[in-house]
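Example record

The entry below shows one chain as it appears in the dataset: sequence first, then C-alpha cells.
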Amino acid sequence: MATEKIDKPEDFINSFSFHDVSLDRISIDFDSQTAKLATPDMNWNYEGSHGYVKRPCRLIFGGTTAYFIDVVDLDGVRIGDISANIMGDLISANINLNLGGGSSSWGRDHGSISFMFKTLEIADM
C-alpha cells in the first residue's frame, strides 16, 4: 500500500475536486490526533477523463484537533465540497457533506465535518 505525503495540504485540498466523492468510513483517534476519511474512489469526479485511474484510499489528517462532526452515519454520504485555510500553525478543514437521503439522515440534506490539522497523507487501499 503506497502512502503519499502532501506537501501543501491547503493548496491540494482547495485545487482537487472532491465533489460527490463518497465516503465509506470516518475514523477519529483522539490519542494519536488523526482523522481518517476512507473513500472507494478519490478520483471519482474525474471518471471519464483521459488518464482516469480509480483510487480507493484514506485521507489521513495528522495533528488533528478541534473536531466538529455533524453526521449521523455514512449511508449514501458524499462530499459536497471541501476547503482548507491556514490559521496560525494549523490548517482548518471544512467539509460540507451531501447526506444523500440515507436512512439515518433524519430528513436533512447536508451535514459537515470540520477540524484543525497539520499534515495530510493519502494511503492507497
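Notes for this example: Residues 74 and 119 are 24 Å apart (CA to CA). The beta strands are 3-6, 25-29, 34-39, 57-62, 65-70, 78-87, 90-98, 110-117, 119-124.
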